Amino acid sequence: MKKLLIIITVLLMINLDAQAKNNNNLKQQKNMNNTAILHTANEFVSKGNYESFLAYCTTDTKWVFVGERILHGKEEVRAYMKEFYIEPPVFDVELAIEEGDFVTVTGNIRLKNKNGKYEHFNYCDIWRFENGKIAELKAFVIEKKP
Fold first, then answer.
1. Contact 136, 61 (CB under 8 A)
2. How many CB atoms are closer than 10 A to CB 84?
3. Would you write out the chain's pLDDT as a tens digit for each of its 146 residues?
4. Is-contact 126 104, C-beta < 8 A?
5. 3-state DSSP call for residue 65?
6. Residue 10 has what pLDDT?
7. What is the spatial distance between Cα 76 and Cα 30, in angstroms, rounded to a whole number?
8. Under 8 Å between Cβ of 143 and 118
9. What is the distance between the alpha carbons of residues 14 and 18, in angstroms, rounded to a whole number?
């Protein structure tokens, strides 16, 4: 019985420590401005770690690629990344403007296509945040012609 109480106590301490670390990470994320959160999340995309990026999104995140498609929820975003990010995209951010819950970013992006060649695009993304997480993206993406 004594051993069981010791084991339960140790497990509770480990659980409390894990919860404290998780709460600390959430506090740090809430203290970051939305531009910094987006930058941190996109670092994961640049490294091909899409699951860590998706942790920065709300469950019901909505991505609108104007004139092309709309993605509803993390599962559709995950499927999109799997299909189009054959290799991690290469971003070149020109400008980021934050106002309230919104961050607008302009720049260039390179994506490797199924033939192994890079396609180049200009973009203007409008990101909306809820409680430190990406809730919505409205993306204007234009292919650069050679």
1. yes
2. 12
3. 555 444 544 444 455 454 555 555 444 445 579 999 999 999 999 999 999 999 999 999 999 999 999 999 999 999 999 999 999 999 999 999 999 999 999 999 999 998 999 999 999 999 999 999 999 999 999 999 87
4. yes
5. strand
6. 43
7. 26
8. no
9. 6
Cα separations in angstroms, 11 against 18, 22, 80:
11, 16, 39
Alpha-helical runs (H) found in the chain: 2-31, 34-46, 50-54, 73-84
Q: What is the pLDDT of residue 146?
A: 73
Q: At CA 56, angle to CA 101 and CA 66, rounded to 5?
A: 65
Q: How far apart are CA 90 and CA 104, in angstroms?
A: 18
Which among 143, 144, 141, 142 has a CA at the least distance from the CA of 64?
141
